[in-house]
Specification:
alpha+beta, globular, three-stranded antiparallel beta sheet
């Protein structure tokens, strides 16, 4: 490829990308040259210049070889253009890992029908590799898979038979075949679990998924199951939360728990979307708390313990976007309609006209929380109560405490005081919250009372907080009901106002990124962690209110940070919430 078409400006842009990724490379480094070539190709494509397929593919391959990471998204951008031209890797290309940066969805020629259509990177069952198919060909392949199952199992669907019945009969046939195979080679098989063992596996799975259950995910009590003579038993299910979904597979014998993207292959749930783009695996032993902690931290880092943030993909069919918005509105106000036993439309009308709720709906739900899905997440709802019954619409801001460190300590104390009174099953205990947040003897961990921190302003804080809590208590009992109130408070605790607050599911992951960046930059860790090390600091920051003022101040604003970073909690990009996309491929295909 050489340097065809590469300008000094392209090299400058490549160096800027290198420096933004905190890499130290010379202008003549092969990695910089590969990146500059990719920048050149992207520039010319954006200017609608002709770029030959060979040059495009060569730029992609050179960049992958020399700089597969921290390339400013150039590798992904080139892959997207290649897909549009129908140039797609073979399953084993790029060590079989090409799907990690190639787009999940795109537009180009379908692998099977060769028509230019909306495509989805797809891997069905039966061990087939990733490939790009349009919706029509995916459904055709599904039909072919069904025919394959018919031949393998000898089970043909009866007219009008439900999917559950057909699945059960096919599974029974496959189990019978496995029994026959096991009898022929008993020395190679893993013993099939008995009923008690299956029950033990289910109980363990429910235990390690406990944090997801608390965060509003539909963790089932029963699971589909399978068994293999080599890998042993498997449990699997689809977890749902307000239209969002993901697949799980648990292999007890191999101590593996897999979280997988959800794919609505048949289009049965058109307003659904996957919260995962790729596979995540966690080691889960049959016993012990370590696996519970590992799953909690992993799903927390993925944003699955916080409310889902989702936006409709740019260019989506307007009718599909409207249908998605309508489904979200139904998820928010449907429980209130059931609580009041009146139509949803009547509830919505009352809510938008209610003097104590209309502003919250307009500013918090409609603007600050525009992309926040109406999930019932107790921990996020506690942050919402801290934000809108303590910090905002009260006298707290008028009596702002003298330092950000002290304000952070009080914010954490408020969240801790609220958390025990928020339950996904019973709703919000407003009386308990009022008692906790207006108690004159309420103390910080260091023994100082919150009332003493506000001095003469405490009576105003106390009365205004009480007023806000009682307002929401009336809305809860008279208009909204516990479920919708919980969802509204979840949205209130999931805006940019609280994205850097303690109490969210991503908190540990945020602290990990802040500490990691500081160590990479050579910053001095606050004492005593210069000796104890970054791992101990990350562990201890799970309870930041138990740390010294120096540690908490370092976390908020690192004293050694420059304008270019890395930054502390106040400005670190890790605090930006993860946002998923709803891409209604079914609308684009007209199916």
């Amino acid at each position: 490829m050489g340097s065809t078409g590469v300008t000094e400006g392209d090299v400058d842009k490549a160096m800027a990308i290198v420096e933004s990724g905190r890499q130290s490379l010379r202008r003549d480094d092969p990695a910089v040259k590969a990146l500059a070539a990719a920048v050149s190709v992207r520039r010319r494509l954006q200017g609608e210049e002709a770029v030959a397929d060979d040059e495009l593919l060569a730029a992609h391959d050179q960049l992958h070889a020399k700089m597969p990471h921290r390339n400013g998204g150039s590798l992904e951008a080139l892959a997207d253009v290649l897909l549009g031209r129908g140039i797609v890797p073979l399953p084993g290309d790029y060590d079989g890992d090409w799907w990690l940066w190639w787009p999940k969805k795109g537009y180009g020629p379908c692998r099977d029908c060769r028509q230019h259509r909306s495509l989805t990177r797809y891997s069905a069952k039966w061990g087939k590799p990733y490939r790009y198919l349009c919706a029509r060909c995916r459904k055709l392949e599904l039909a072919e898979d069904s025919a394959y199952l018919n031949s393998v199992t000898g089970v043909v669907p009866d007219e009008g038979e439900s999917a559950e019945s057909l699945f059960g009969r096919r599974m029974a046939a496959l189990v019978s075949q496995l029994d026959t195979q096991a009898a022929a080679a008993p020395e190679k098989q893993v013993a099939r679990p008995d009923a008690d063992q299956w029950g033990e596996y289910v109980d363990r799975l429910i235990e390690v998924l406990g944090s997801l259950d608390w965060a509003g995910w539909s963790v089932p009590d029963e699971y589909d199951s399978d068994w293999d003579a080599e890998t042993g038993p498997m449990l699997f299910a689809t977890l749902w939360r307000t239209g969002a979904a993901m697949e799980i597979e648990y292999y007890p014998r191999e101590s593996r728990l897999r979280f997988l993207p959800y794919d609505d292959v048949c289009g049965d749930f058109p307003e659904s979307f996957s919260v995962l783009d790729g596979e995540v695996e966690v080691t889960v032993t049959l016993r012990g708390d370590e696996a519970v902690t590992a799953v909690h931290r992993r799903v927390g880092a993925l944003g699955l313990l916080d409310a889902t943030r989702v936006r409709v993909v740019e260019g989506a069919d307007p009718e599909a976007a409207e249908a998605f918005e309508a489904e979200s509105l139904l998820s928010l106000f449907g429980p209130a309609a059931s609580y009041r036993e009146i139509p949803v439309a009547d509830i919505v009308k009352e809510a938008v006209q209610h003097p104590d709720l209309s502003t919250y709906l307009q500013w918090v739900v409609g603007r600050a929380g525009r992309n926040v899905h109406p999930d019932p997440v107790p921990d996020a709802a506690a942050l919402g109560i801290a934000a809108w019954c303590w910090r905002n619409e009260t006298a707290v801001e008028a009596h702002h405490l003298p330092s950000d460190v002290l304000m952070a300590r009080v914010n954490i104390a408020v969240t801790r005081a609220v958390l025990p009174h928020v339950c996904p099953y019973e709703g919000i205990d407003w009386d308990g919250i009022e008692r906790s947040l207006t108690d004159t003897s309420w103390k910080l961990p260091d023994g100082r009372t919150v009332s003493s921190l506000f001095g003469d302003g405490w009576p105003a804080v106390q009365s205004s907080v009480r007023e806000q809590i009682r307002k929401w208590q009336r809305l809860d009992s008279e208009l909204l009901g516990p479920d919708t109130t919980l969802r509204l408070m979840t949205i209130g605790g999931s805006t940019d106002h609280t994205c850097h607050w303690w109490g969210q599911g991503r908190w540990r992951a945020i602290c990990e990124e802040i500490v990691h960046d500081a160590v990479e930059a050579g910053f001095t860790l606050p004492q005593p962690y210069g000796c104890r090390g970054p791992a101990a600091l990350i562990d201890d920051l799970e309870n930041p209110d138990m740390q010294s003022d120096a540690v908490l101040a370092w976390l908020i604003d690192m004293p050694e940070a420059s304008v270019s970073g890395p930054h502390g909690l106040r400005h670190h990009p890790a605090t930006r919430p993860l946002v998923r996309e709803y891409d209604p491929w079914w609308a684009a295909e007209g199916t």
